[in-house]
Every structure is written in C-alpha cells, then in structure tokens.
Fold this protein.
Amino acid sequence: VQLVESGGGLVQPGKSLKLSCSASGFTFSSYGMHWIRQAPGKGLDWVAYISSSSGTVYADAVKGRFTISRDNAKNTLYLQLNSLKSEDTAIYYCARRGMSNYFDYWGQGVMVTVSS
Amino acid sequence: QITLTQQAESLWVSPGEKVSITCRASQSLLYTDGKHYLSWYQQRPGQTTKALIYHASIRTDGVPTRFIGSGSGTEFTLSIEDVQPEDIALYYCLQTLKKPYTFGAGTKLELK
C-alpha cells in the first residue's frame, strides 16, 4: 500500500488549492479515505472522509470551504481547498480507512501554507 | 464531539524500561458490537504515521509485541515494554466511534 500526496504550496488568504493523493497497492475503489491535517508544531486534526460509495463528511472547521472527492479510475483522492485562511496552514495527510474503522495506512503528507 | 485527553505532553524513558501512555475519552468508546473504537498511532520524523493498535488492544500487522493496548469504556493505555531507541516518537490516540473523529493531543516519548 502506498499513498502519495501532492499539490501543496504557498497560497494567499482567500485563494484556492487542490490536493491529490495517489493510491497504489490495493483496490482503491473498495476503501473509504480520509484527509487529516497537522498545523506546525501541533497535533493531528481529522478534516474529511469519503466512503467507497462517495458519501462525504467534514469537520466543522472546513465545512462549506473544502470538498473531498475521488476518481476511482485514476486511483486518486482529492481535497479542494477554497477560501483559505491562515489557520488552514498545515501538513495535509491522506489515510485509508481500514476494515476495522481505523486509519491503517497514511501518506507522507504535503505542506500547505496560507500567507500573504 | 468526543474529546480525547492525553494528560502527558512528554514522557522520559531509558532504553529497556516500560512506559505507559494514557488516553481518556469524554464518553464511552464502546459500540453495540462490543468493540472499542480507539486506536493508537506513532509519528517519527521522516516516516509515515504508523497505526499500532486498533479496537483498543489489537496490534496491527508487524507491530512488535512490546506494544500493548489496553483499557475499556473511557480509559485507555498504550504500554511499551522494553523501550527501544526507535520507539522515541510522538504517540496519538484516535476515536472513530462518532464523527467528527478526534485525536488526543499527543504524547512525546523522549530519552532520559
């Protein structure tokens, strides 16, 4: 199993960014997937979840601004980040939902910096 | 939402010692299927975050037997027996009983 995030970078407040998580080594379409973030020097925060059937759930802090999606043909998970705020600055990780409802595999993370 | 409290920000340990990291939930993490939806994760610099324990006490594949998860209801513990230098890391608990899923604040294991 391998998860590789990309798409991070420096972005101004109010702007948008789209993160990708490329999955390999397993049947991507069969698994739910999560995004988690970690602000610099801080702990882990769950951001969003998409089920294998594309049902979605969001943390209150990002609801209405972020959109999680997936393309099973491309084995790729996405996170669209809109109306970015400085407090969204963090490393963003994708993780697979294990069969026993825990986060069994994680990517290495991608940095998003929101600053003018 | 369910709050997870990891009381200790840091714990100091010598190689070979045993250490316990606690995680307290604001409500029971026991589901009607009889399982606790509490898992433990290890973060080491330069490595991907690793799942250690799920359902409070089940080790994931390949995790050494010195990692032991225990507890029930609202009180959970990750014990590491015979600590090795490679165990120096950040440890987080996570509840997946109810969304929004929540993590503890983390406990940093450091060498004495």
In short: Chain A is about 0% helix and 55% strand. The first strand of chain A starts at residue 2 and ends at 6.
